[in-house]
Amino acid sequence: MSEQDVPMLIPLVQSCDCVVFGPGFGSNPESLSAAAQLIPYFKKAVIDADALRPEIFDALIQFNQSNASSKPLEIVLTPHYHELTRTASYFGINLPGSRKELLPDELESAALEISEKLGAAVLVKGREDLIANAGIVRYNATGNAGMSVGGTGDVLAGITGGLLAKNSAAAAACCGAYVCGKAGDSASEEKGDSLIPADILDKVPLVFIGEVDSKTKKEAKKGNEKGNKKEIKKT
């Protein structure tokens, strides 16, 4: 992607309710500079992975400052911890190399500061997802170790983008984290810890229509009935 592509991409971006940007984009400075020029044309956006770079942050801050009197962009950032440390360093916030080295309130403080300065909801992926927005921190506990594989974050970004198209940044971040984790939990019940992103994606529609919970309840009920029958036979 280069600046020559920008005129072609502007109407495409303008036609979208939400843009998901970053996964697989790369870190080429020319590409990032070109992408930064598109930010004024975004209605809403999920910014993830390779797009969590100074060029994009500069453009976001500049846009927010020049449009302070109008409605700000609805933005969700979806970094894993190492992407968060890179983002934090842009704002002069020094974080250790491992999330385990941080106290919960230190992580919350960093995420809240980034959220305030970028005017965005910050969804920090991890064993417990952390969502910081407008001075409030929430946690999501769905998900499992089998989801620690490349591509899972792309699924989360896509889910969050779909939700953001019709909802606020805070609601999309919280619900996106829950839905992705719930889909991963359902996939893990079938396939164990050896998951690929497609396994999670297959379960997403079932989470939205409640089939994951109903299936689990039915299986639990069926198991109880079997157990009761066995007890009756024994007696």
TrEMBL record:
Enzyme class: lyase
Catalytic activity, EC: 4.2.1.136
Gene3D superfamilies the record matches: 3.40.1190.20
GO MF: ADP-dependent NAD(P)H-hydrate dehydratase activity
Lineage top rank: taxon: Archaea
Protein name per the record: ADP-dependent (S)-NAD(P)H-hydrate dehydratase
Ranges where the record places region Disordered: 216-235
Keyword Lyase: yes
Entry-linked SUPFAM superfamilies: Ribokinase-like (SSF53613)
Keywords tagged on the record: ATP-binding, Lyase, NAD, NADP, Nucleotide-binding
Iron in keyword set: no
A Pfam family assignment: Carb_kinase
Domain YjeF C-terminal: 1-211
InterPro entries hit by this protein: CARKD, Ribokinase-like
Gene name of this polypeptide: nnrD
